[in-house]
Design goal:
Shape: elongated
Strand order of the largest sheet: 3-4-2-5-6-1-7
Number of strands: 16
Number of helices: 13
Largest sheet: 7 strands, mixed
CATH class of the largest domain: Alpha Beta
Mean pLDDT: 90
Bound molecules: adenosine-5'-triphosphate, magnesium ion
Helix content: 25-40%
CATH topology of the largest domain: Nucleotidyltransferase, domain 5
Low-confidence stretches: 399-418
Strand content: 15-25%
Structural class: alpha/beta
Radius of gyration: 26 Å
Order of helices and strands: EHEHEEEHEHEHHHEEEHEHEHEHEEHHE
Number of domains: 2
């Protein structure tokens, strides 16, 4: 071998040829660096190597692995073999080959054929790869001895890449490995600090972020990831009415529960939109200031609080900072999951969208079951979401049914004061 790049032990299965090489796991495990080095090494070994680095969506080259691969060429002093210098949108490989960077969503069934002569396709961030893209790509990469490489941080067992490699019938001739930070001999001190911080403060997400586990979802959860993902919007639609809701934690001790603060709106289309999650830990003054700042940021109509528990205290805390603050009090049934269920039903009916991604709120939602909350601490963000929806959808949420979903208000469910 011309190059002698040492391979972390965990990647040893990739030293042999395989039709599929798949590495999944948590942050900082060395997946991207490993495949970038493999490309450089393979290009040096095989003249004219053609590689395509794809991801589901690639808006700019900055999102791609181009820079990482170029850095590897620099570190090993190989530019004389790689066309002499970096190029705008591709990398020249020894013997007239190339490395290209593309987004699968820019391809059609026709255009994808341009990749038929490629030796390697590396799918980065493969957790976001659609079933369509996977279906396009597999038969396209067809040159004798060609390989498909995948790297990803798993989200959900139903994502196409997880179904393909980790489902009931994984493909033949696949080397599939799980890698984590502890397998990375180069794991940098900066990431170690981040990891420790999450281990202390972000327990629900820790296993997902750092250990490559799926995003936390309880069995029997009343919300599901797919519905949330499927209805997600990236642009804010026309909104008729916006409220900010607050669910303050009882105690403000360090390490105690968070104060849930959510901004949500009712669209012109009669659908609900979650716009912001500005929850925090802190003193009553801190949550009240944060809630009011969120109210100002979204130019909201009111702040929604729950009336049952310390309603007056919550109202007074807000009004001690801004006396004229419009406050709506809602009343809900006691059981957390019982009051959450009608809101979950709005999601199932396709009447709710998150504008952007709210990982901690979404984790809490997917750990609410009919038997209670299965995450750590208390689901304050979900409670705040429930208050907001109770105000925005009074008719739906106060409907009496055999399950007592009701908020106990006969009159539309809310009071405006302040
Ligand atoms: N072969 C290597 N040479 C030098 N540094 C490396 C190497 N592999 C990993 N590292 C170091 O470890 C860090 C994490 O590696 P990398 O970015 O490849 O992980 P990853 O699994 O792709 O993580 P993420 O899920 O965050 O994308 C890098 O930022 C780099 O500091
Ligand atoms: Mg990476």
């Amino acid at each position: 071998m011309i190059l002698d790049i040492p391979t972390p032990r965990v990647f040893a299965p990739f030293l042999q040829p395989h039709r599929y090489k798949a590495a999944f796991g948590g942050r900082g495990s060395g997946k991207s660096h490993h495949f970038a080095e493999d490309i450089v090494e393979a290009a040096v070994r095989r003249q004219g190597l053609r590689v395509v680095c794809v991801r589901e969506v690639q808006k700019t080259l900055k999102e791609s692995a181009k820079r990482l691969i170029e850095d590897k060429i620099t570190v090993h002093g190989l530019w004389p073999m790689f066309g002499g210098k970096p190029r705008m949108d591709h990398i020249v490989t020894p013997g007239g080959g190339v490395v290209l960077f593309q987004g699968m969503q820019d391809h059609t069934a026709e255009s994808i054929k341009s990749l038929e002569g490629f030796d390697v396709a590396w799918v980065e961030e493969a957790q976001t790869l659609s079933a369509r893209s996977l279906e396009f790509l597999r038969p396209t990469i067809r040159k004798p001895g060609s390989e498909l490489w995948f790297s990803w941080n798993p989200r959900n067992a139903n994502d196409p890449v997880d179904l393909f490699f980790r489902g009931l019938q994984p493909p033949d001739n696949a080397a599939v490995i799980k890698v984590n930070y502890s397998d990375n001999p180069f794991f940098p001190a900066e990431l170690e600090d981040e990891r420790r911080h999450d281990a202390k403060t972000n327990r629900d997400r820790y296993a997902h972020i750092w250990l490559g586990e799926y995003e936390p979802t309880a069995i029997g959860a009343i919300w599901d990831r797919q519905t949330i993902h499927a209805n997600r919007r990236h642009e804010r639609p026309e909104i008729r009415r916006i409220v900010v809701s607050v669910d303050p934690a009882v105690s403000s001790d360090v390490g105690s529960d968070e104060h849930g603060i959510i901004a949500a709106g009712l669209g012109e289309d009669q659908r609900g939109y979650v716009l912001d999650d500005t929850s925090l830990r802190g003193t009553p003054r801190q949550w009240a200031e944060r809630a009011i700042a969120t109210y100002d940021k979204w130019d909201a109509d009111a702040i929604v609080v729950e009336r049952n528990q310390g309603g007056d205290m919550v109202k007074h805390t807000l009004q001690s900072i801004r006396a004229e603050m419009p406050i709506v009090e809602v009343v809900a049934t006691r059981g957390k999951h019982v009051r959450a269920e009608p809101v979950a039903a709005l999601y199932s009916m396709g009447r709710m969208s998150h504008v952007g991604t709210f990982p901690q709120l979404e984790d809490q939602m997917c750990q609410m079951t009919a038997g209670g909350y299965e995450g750590h601490g208390s689901p304050d963000r979900v409670d705040a979401l429930v208050w907001a929806m109770t105000e925005l959808f009074p008719d739906i949420i106060s409907v009496k049914s055999s399950v007592d979903w009701s908020i106990d208000a006969g009159s539309g469910g809310s009071w405006l004061s302040g």
